[in-house]
Automatic annotation (TrEMBL):
Protein name: Coproporphyrinogen-III oxidase
Keyword Oxidoreductase among record annotations: yes
EC annotation from Swiss-Prot or TrEMBL: 1.3.98.3
Family statement: Belongs to the anaerobic coproporphyrinogen-III oxidase family.
Principal location: cytoplasm
Catalytic EC class: oxidoreductase
Sequence ranges assigned to domain Radical SAM core in this UniProt record: 46-289
Tagged with keyword Metal-binding: yes
Swiss-Prot/TrEMBL GO biological process terms: protoporphyrinogen IX biosynthetic process
Pfam families to which the protein is assigned, alphabetical: Radical_SAM
Catalytic reactions on record: coproporphyrinogen III + 2 S-adenosyl-L-methionine = protoporphyrinogen IX + 2 5'-deoxyadenosine + 2 L-methionine + 2 CO2
PANTHER family per the UniProt record, alphabetical: COPROPORPHYRINIGEN III OXIDASE (PTHR13932), OXYGEN-INDEPENDENT COPROPORPHYRINOGEN III OXIDASE (PTHR13932:SF6)
């Protein structure tokens, strides 16, 4: 990739798991009443036709990984498990009371934190409590994030018997110096153990999460990590850029500082070399930061133009409605967003008073909905069109003017009311989306809100 393009376009920018992005939500006009109305509208339109998605945030971890920006509670006290599950099931009850029929669950994902912090018995109680009040779609997909160090055969068997067929394991990097800096020590044998165990049990989609741009990480470390990954041949790989956002993580980044991070040019080289190695191993690049084998559902979704992106990242299951349960979880009704309170004690307090525990959100207007669809098209398919009347909006001409530099640089092509991102432009997909981000243009932040795009 041209070093000049990296310097030109390596700016802070959103990852666009939503539009509007969270910092630009209109919290002042948001209310719990409006949020419930948007849910009911979406449910009536889509429950029967496509079902809903559920994300459940399980925030507990036994130790702090210093690269992580997720909402978590560090503890070794496992007596916290049962009260938390009780609270999540209370929240699910409050949502189910809004609807006049049982929700049809198409997708369910357990994230964290560390879902495998929870004992198999408690995970069984959680999932049975959820499905007791719902119907499972014919093609439902259940998935969870597992820590290679503490995922047991009992975890894998319990969740498999509950319908889970996809699991992702956080690898990050196999180099010991990098692992030490990010406080995530896990040898290859642990990843190999859980990967082979999951495969033998019958999981049909096993994923590994790898991160580039980590402290002390080099191109050789990427080569080593991907060489070991190729030995295990996971079905899909999330190859993420490390998001350096110390203003979010606070003092959690111990063991390194900004000077220990690879520079932008080297960081991008890590990705480009990693991509070549993965493609050589039979993987196909999916969207912005995923790779999949042709046998995986994510590949088929991309090939059939059904790839979707939401707060869980790229997914093969597209639903208008995604309900987030648990502290800090974000929900999406398509017409609105909401986020739960981040403190566990406040979360418990609101649920004890029969209140859905959201503390902020945004109700989308017509322009928001149009821009949201454009950004979703770009993130999933690298192209979008404004031929349809519902995809035209007042600021479209201004956006096209903002794309003029990218046209000159060969990153995009615009013709017949259609924009296509070129092969050279794919690494800059976040930058192209930023041109459509009217709220980002109108409310230029005075301080840095997002990680760098490259």
């Amino acid at each position: 990739m041209s070093q000049n393009l990296i310097k030109k376009y390596n700016v802070p920018g959103p990852r666009y798991t939503s539009y509007p992005t969270v910092p630009f939500w209109d919290n002042n006009s948001f209310s719990l009443k409006l949020w419930k109305q948007s849910l009911q509208q979406s449910f009536k339109e889509s429950n029967t036709s496509e079902g809903i998605s559920l994300y459940i945030h399980l925030p507990f971890c036994e130790s702090l990984c210093t690269f992580c920006g997720c909402n978590k509670r560090i503890t070794k006290r496992h007596e916290v498990e049962s009260p938390y599950i009780t609270a999540v099931l209370k929240e699910w009850d409050l949502y189910c009371e809004l609807f006049d029929e049982k929700p049809i669950i198409k997708e369910l994902h357990l994230g964290g934190g560390t879902p495998t912090f929870f004992a198999p018995l408690n995970l069984n109680r959680l999932i049975n409590g959820i499905t007791r009040k719902a119907i499972l779609a014919n093609n439902y997909e259940f998935s969870f994030e597992g820590h290679p160090n503490n995922t047991t055969e009992a975890h894998l068997l319990t969740l498999f018997n509950l319908g889970f067929r996809r699991v992702s394991f956080g690898v990050q990097d196999y180099n010991h110096a990098v692992q030490k800096a990010i406080h995530r020590i896990q040898p290859f044998k642990n990843v190999q153990r859980v990967t082979e165990m999951a495969r033998n049990i019958g999981y049909t989609s096993i994923g590994h999460d790898i991160i580039f741009g980590l402290p002390f990480q080099t191109v050789d470390h990427i080569r080593e990590t991907i060489a070991k990954t190729r030995q295990l041949k996971p079905d899909r790989i999330a190859f993420y850029s490390y998001a350096h956002t110390p203003w979010i993580k606070g003092n959690g980044q111990r063991g390194f500082n900004e000077n220990n991070l690879p520079k932008a040019e080297e960081k991008r080289l890590q990705y480009e070399i990693g991509k070549v190695l993965l493609i050589d191993a039979g993987y196909t690049e999916i969207g912005m930061d995923h790779f999949a084998l042709p046998s995986d559902a994510l590949y088929n979704a991309m090939a059939n133009l059904k790839l979707h992106r939401n707060f869980m990242g790229y997914t093969a299951s597209k639903t208008k409605m995604m309900i987030g349960l648990g502290v800090s979880s974000i929900s999406d009704s398509w017409y609105g967003f909401s986020q739960n309170v981040k403190g566990i004690e406040e979360y418990y307090h609101l649920l004890d008073h029969q209140i859905i525990p959201v503390f902020r959100g945004h109700i989308l207007n017509e322009e928001d909905l149009a821009i949201r669809q454009h950004i979703l098209n770009l993130m999933c398919h690298y192209k979008t069109s404004w031929n349809a009347s519902n995809l035209k909006f007042e600021n479209l001409d201004k956006i096209l003017n903002k794309l003029s530099e990218m046209l000159k640089d060969g990153l995009v092509i615009i013709e017949n009311n259609t924009l296509k991102i070129t092969k050279q432009g794919k690494p800059f997909v976040r930058n192209v989306c930023m041109a459509f981000d009217v709220l980002l243009q109108q409310k230029q932040p005075q301080k840095q809100l997002f990680s760098m795009t490259i």
